[in-house]
Amino acid sequence: MQTNKSGKAKWNYIFIAATAGVMIWLLSQMQDPEQVWQTLRTADPRYLLAALGCLLLVLAALLAARRLRLRRRLAEIAAAEDKAAIALRFAYAAWLMGYAGATPETLAAAGLDYAAARRLQLEALYSQHTMDPAQRQWMDDYAAQVLAHCQNRWKRLQRWYYHWIKCLY
Fold first, then answer.
1. How many CB atoms lie within 10 A of CB 12?
2. CA gap 24, 124 in Å, rounded
3. pLDDT tens digit string along 83-115?
4. Biggest alpha carbon distance in the chain?
5. How many helices (H) and strands (E) would you count in the chain?
6. H-helix or E-strand spanning residue 150
């Protein structure tokens, strides 16, 4: 579940630069700002609604792509062998903790054993022996408990945002 943040940031900067370039070009083409408002006032509302509909479709497609990417990554964790699945599931739990502002201390106060999960993750990453399915199940349960803890920390609007917009779970 490694992401290429530099590549993502690069495309964000390209999008911002392209948007700024289009806006500058449009402003340079505009002779009279009142003419733009007059055009918008006389425009057929169906065209404006169609443009808004297209924008909403693009937004829905982007959100669906994010949701599919999350599901694909979670399916990769589920299909991985025990050692890799343990390490990846802990990384997912730590990722969720970052969004909730949870610390090992707050997890301990909630009854979650972060230190044991971290030891199991390190064992999965650096030991030569195989991990058993019981250890994998324990880490899966730990990640589910961390998700529940994070959901309890988030307000309703945050839960909606993290679920449907950010696609964290």
1. 10
2. 54
3. 999 999 999 999 999 999 999 999 999 999 999
4. 74
5. 8, 0
6. helix 133-153
